[in-house]
Design brief:
Blueprint: H1 3-9, H2 26-47, H3 54-67, E1 71-75, H4 78-88, E2 95-100, H5 106-113, E3 117-121, H6 132-145, E4 149-156, H7 165-174, E5 178-182, E6 190-191, E7 194-195, E8 202-206, E9 220-224, H8 227-237, H9 260-291, E10 304-305, E11 311-314, H10 318-327, H11 357-365, E12 366-369, H12 377-391
Parallel strand pairs: 2-3, 2-4, 4-5, 5-8
Antiparallel strand pairs: 1-9, 6-7, 6-10, 8-9, 11-12
Helix pairs in contact: 2-9, 3-9, 4-5, 4-8, 9-12, 10-12
Bound molecules: pyridoxal-5'-phosphate.
Length: about 400
């Protein structure tokens, strides 16, 4: 089938087809929830509690129920969700925090913003997630050959797949390091039925519009069980506020609140989310079934469930595939073309002494396909056919 043939089969009501399929179709989602979102937004405009209004507390309660975490601290972005726990732990100059290099900038940025040193760790070539052996080497290196104090590990659930928490938590315990999960891409994922948000002592997620659960602006949340850290995070989120009211400041904090309007939108999107997760799973399953013969399809370990923020293939002919598919109106994206340890602001920080071979190889081979819950089978088959042609 041709692209215009596909376009005419797209559900009626879609905007005139502009020649390129959406990489993530937020408009199809909005069409389903438009009335309810507008109703919820109108309620906020009427009650006028724009900052920390009732929707924020309601959302936090519902996110606890969904993730199984005791506490949810909503905040203004995924970046803040990674940064605030580091502030709460007192991470400071002279500290080392171990992070993967194959991730979005914010993971390492949060560490550097505390004045601490990110230490870059390699990833596993099949899961794209932090490699426990590389982590061990990096910790040993820092302990033996630097003046830095190892303080914490930030794992990343890349493309929606939870990291190897069992292995990494035991390394963290053995070296007395704090463990923070950067789950900006994996809200909804799980291991053995345990949801992201309850897989690590502290979990950060993002509600950036393109993430599995996105709002209509910036937003994020931190999930945790610890009562004391919960109080600290709630205080840091509002300028280090103490119990004595608005102008009682007990620590240095920041302004990192989630807008009431965004909470209202997320409450509506959360209703849709379980079904969306199932549909993402179906899209991923069809891609893997059809493409396994021409490409390395993503590996999901047994008992793991990905949130499928991205569906990512590896192939050394990447640039060719991207060019061919572009001509067919199919957008592909590369996450991430340049690892963090090779980027200017991060190039002088320490790394695994054996180097980051998988990270560097992946950055040259990965590409992500259109992935969202509203990808119709006819469109997906069109994409699959064009990819098979480009790769054979
Ligand atoms: C998106 C993302 C973040 C940052 O989230 P924002 O809400 O955009 O600040 C952090 N870490 C990872 C791995 C991400 O993908």
């Amino acid at each position: 089938m041709t692209l215009s043939g596909v376009a005419t089969k797209l559900a009626p009501g879609n905007k005139p087809f502009d020649g390129t399929l959406p990489f993530i179709d937020l408009k199809a989602q909005y069409a389903l929830i438009e009335k309810n979102v507008q109703k919820r937004m109108a309620q906020v405009l009427e009650h006028g509690n724009y900052i920390m209004g009732p929707e924020v507390a309601d959302l936090e309660k519902k996110l606890c129920a969904y993730t199984g975490a005791k506490h949810t601290v909503s905040c203004s972005s995924g970046t803040d969700a990674v940064w605030l726990p580091l502030l709460a732990l007192g991470v400071r100059p002279g500290d080392a925090v171990f992070v993967p290099s194959f991730t979005f900038t914010a993971t390492a940025e949060a560490v550097a913003l505390c004045g601490a040193s990110p230490v870059f760790v390699d990833v596993h070539q099949d899961t794209f997630n932090m490699c426990p052996e590389s982590l061990e080497r990096a910790i040993t290196q820092v302990k033996k050959h630097s003046t830095l104090t190892p303080r914490a590990i930030i794992t990343v659930d890349l493309f929606g797949l939870p990291a190897d928490y069992a292995s990494i938590a035991s390394i963290a315990a053995a070296h007395e390091l704090k463990l923070i999960a950067d789950a900006a891409q994996s809200f909804g994922g799980s291991i053995q039925g345990r949801k992201v948000g309850s897989l690590a002592p502290v979990t950060a997620t993002s509600f950036f519009p393109a993430k599995p659960l996105g709002c209509y602006g910036d937003g994020g949340a931190i999930f945790l069980d610890d009562d004391e850290m919960n109080e600290t995070l709630c205080s840091i989120r509002i300028h280090g506020r103490g119990l004595g009211g608005k102008y009682d400041n007990v620590r240095i904090g920041t302004n990192a609140r989630l807008d009431t309007l965004q909470a209202a939108i997320l409450l509506e999107k959360l209703v849709l989310f379980p079904k969306e997760l199932e549909d993402r799973q179906k899209v991923a399953a069809l891609y893997s079934k059809e493409l396994a013969c021409v490409a390395d399809v993503p590996e999901v370990p047994e008992t793991y469930q990905s949130a499928w923020a991205q569906y990512t293939l590896k192939n050394p002919k990447r640039e060719h595939v991207i060019a061919v598919l572009k001509d067919c109106g199919i957008p592909l994206q590369v996450y991430y073309p340049k690892p963090l340890h090779l980027q200017t602001p991060y190039k002088d920080f320490p790394l695994d002494p054996k180097g980051l071979k998988n990270t560097e190889a992946l950055s040259r081979a990965v590409f992500s396909l259109p992935m969202h819950p509203y990808l119709q089978p006819v469109v997906q088959h069109y994409i699959i056919t064009r990819i098979k042609e480009a790769l054979s």
